[in-house]
Amino acid sequence: MASPPDQTRVIVKERSGCALHAWVHGPGNAPLVVLTHGATMDHRMFDSQLPPLLAAGYQVMTVDLRGHGHSRPLGGAPLSVPALAEDVLALIDEAGADRFVVIGQSLGGYVAQDLVLRYPHRVIALGVIGSTATTTPISRLDAYLLRSSVTWFRFWPYKHLRKLMVTSLAHDEEVQAYAREAMNTLTKEEFLTIWTAVTHVHQPLPEYRIEHPFLLTHGDQDRTGNIRAVAPAWAARDPQSTYVVIPDARHNANQDNPDFYNRALLNFLTQHAPTDPSQRK
Fold first, then answer.
1. CA-to-CA distance for 166 and 163, rounded, in angstroms?
2. Residue 7 pLDDT > 80
3. Could you tell me whether strands 9-15 and 18-25 are parallel, antiparallel, or unpaired per DSSP bridges?
4. How many Å apart are CA 263 and CA 51, to the nearest integer?
5. What are the pLDDT digits (tens) for 63-102?
6. Terminal-to-terminal C-alpha distance of the chain
7. Residues 6+ apart with CB under 8 A from 249
8. Superfamily of domain covering 9-279
């Protein structure tokens, strides 16, 4: 498929009954930055990151995770974070990239962590927005509350649930409108399937450390779970972490305050994944 003048390629890959979609922008010889979105969102949640990343000379891939956006239907394989990570890796392979930076928001942050855990040789650096550490042990009570949330959501009127979730994701009205539109494309059963995958994400590995350069961020107004409470300890755990709190931002912090987030991201990438070949490790 010939690339249009803006150097954008659309990749469609059939995998386990789903037509996975990804969009690759920028020069093919530049470091690849892969952006993975949160649950119920889609690739558009990173629209504000594309211009500065491309202007800085990076190649950028945005994806629609299985069951989201254009990547429909869910397919026959059981939905899990490792399965989503395998989908993303298949799209990266299709794009022809060997190593890459992966940046993930919420569910996408879990996918990013899984890629680093199982394919450390492929990952240059990692960024997480509004997620928790999948490898940190959690209490039995927290595990129970997380798993039982599927039951609560099953009996929660879906219209009301979506309304509450949209307001928790962002305070910016345009971002809320986008989130509402993205969520409205999902049936309640699809949402529950996706959320079930989120509740099974933890795989405690007490001795594990992320050894890669790691940008950990969240919004200062993110009230999702215990993200804000546990982030400082997570940042202290991993030796190459950079911890940045995004001001005036809720859960979708990269959308709520894109200018601040983009500066933090580009500072991190310039140090750990420079576009100048002579500066790369």
1. 5
2. no
3. antiparallel
4. 12
5. 999 999 999 999 887 899 999 999 999 999 999 999 999 9
6. 32
7. 170, 171, 219, 220, 221, 222, 256, 257, 260, 261
8. Alpha/Beta hydrolase fold, catalytic domain (3.40.50.1820)
Residue matched to tokens 């899984």: 114
pLDDT per residue over 174-223, tens digit each? 999 999 999 999 999 999 999 999 999 999 999 999 999 999 999 999 99
State pLDDT tens for residues 16-52.
Answer: 999 999 999 999 999 999 999 999 999 999 999 999 9
| CB-CB contact of 114 with 82 (8 Å) | yes
Confidence band (pLDDT; 50, 70, 90) for 278? confident
The span from the CA of 130 to the CA of 151, in Å, is 23
Domain-wise residue ranges, the chain? 9-279
Query: How many of the other CB atoms lie within 10 Å of CB of 86?
Result: 20
Strand partners, 127: 103, 215
**For the CA atoms of the chain, what is the radius of gyration?**
18
**Among positive and negative, which fits the CA dihedral 73, 80, 214, 140?**
positive
9-15 β-sheet, strand order:
9-15, 18-25, 59-64, 32-36, 100-105, 123-129, 214-219, 241-246
How deeply is 173 buried, as exposed, middle or buried, from its count of CB atoms within 10 A (0-12, 13-18, 19+)? exposed
CA–CA gap between residue 194 and residue 274 (Å, rounded): 35
Reading the block at residue 130, the tokens are: 């509004």
Could you give the CA distance from residue 107 to residue 224 in angstroms, rounded to a whole number? 12
Q: 144: exposed, middle or buried (C-beta count within 10 Å: 0-12, 13-18, 19+)? A: exposed
